[in-house]
Design brief:
- It catalyses: GMP + ATP = GDP + ADP.
- Pfam families: Guanylate_kin (PF00625).
- It is an enzyme of class 2 (transferase).
- The chain has about 200 residues and is of the alpha/beta class.
- It is globular.
- Helix 1 crosses helix 7 and helix 5 packs across helix 6.
């Protein structure tokens, strides 16, 4: 599982990781939010309306689901179980709420949290998308800071201050070589204080 606050660069990093580690299989989430201009149904997400999403929840079709920024997101239980039965390594791009649900359902899974190098970088990235107005960006920043407070629930933490290095660190974790990137490393403490303070 890979989680991050909005604006930390998770989606871009996941795409780069998937290109490098071809043995990984991506679990495509369902969402009720509208597609961004560069997104395709069935590639980035399965885009469904609220009624369909609620039907799937009631039918027990999600391994996890959560409401984030007025929209729902969920991980398909049949999709993940099918890939695991085939012996595939499955990658979930998820939020911290979903990660908690997945950990309860599959305690053996590995989890990675991506942090931005600073609050300023986070705001720049959110503004750089040019998809939200100032009010929405302010709310996303507040919510992102709240999301970052869950960093210590994850096995590993990657700081996205240099894209190439962050991608390489994700690759190391997936390969089982990520001991130096565990959440309890001392050099994270100063950054955490700056991000959450």
């Amino acid at each position: 599982m890979i989680a991050a606050p909005s604006g930390a660069g998770k989606t871009t990093l996941v795409r780069a990781l998937m290109a490098r580690v071809t043995s990984l299989r991506f679990s495509i989430s369902y969402t009720t939010r509208k597609p961004r201009p560069n997104e395709q149904d069935g590639r980035d997400y399965f885009f469904v309306d609220h009624a369909e999403f609620e039907r799937m929840v009631a039918a027990g079709e999600f391994l996890e689901h959560a409401r984030v920024f007025d929209n729902y997101y969920g991980t398909s239980k049949p999709q993940v179980e099918s890939m695991l039965r085939k012996g595939e390594n499955v990658l979930l791009e998820i939020d911290w709420q979903g990660a908690q649900q997945i950990r309860r359902a599959m305690p053996e899974c590995q989890s990675i949290f991506i942090l931005p190098p600073s609050r300023e970088a986070l705001e720049q990235r959110l503004r750089g998308r040019q998809t939200d107005n100032d009010e929405v960006i302010a709310r996303r920043l507040r919510d992102s800071i709240a999301d970052m407070s869950h960093w210590n629930e994850f096995d590993y933490v990657v700081v996205n201050d240099d894209f190439e290095r962050a991608t390489a660190e994700l690759e190391m974790i997936v390969a089982g070589l990520g001991d130096g990137l565990r959440r309890d490393r001392s050099e994270l403490q100063t950054l955490i204080r700056r991000l959450l303070g």
